[in-house]
Specification:
Blueprint lengths: L5 H15 L3 E4 L2 E4 L9 E8 L2 E8 L14 H23 L1
Helix pairs in contact: 1-2
Length: 98
Amino acid sequence: KTNFSIEQNFVIVKQSLNNLKWEYEINSNKIDLTLNKYILKFLNPTIIIENNRILYNFKYHSTTKTGRLPFFFGISTYLKMKFEKELSKSILLNKANA
């Protein structure tokens, strides 16, 4: 929950993704991460922007027909934590500037 407009939330998310150096595409109220890093190859991150809030989910997707490998356990949590940290920084920065 951010208490910002949808336009401000887009700016916040774009700042966070740029700081992480993650590439992305904007589609109406949704931001899709492009598969520019090896680790992101195994995740299907979803970021949805709305008024007053930013919704996100970092879920695995299988690159094989047999499901995800146990080796990749924890990558989703790690990347989600990195994103949340950058998102928090951007929200605080924008609240200070408002």
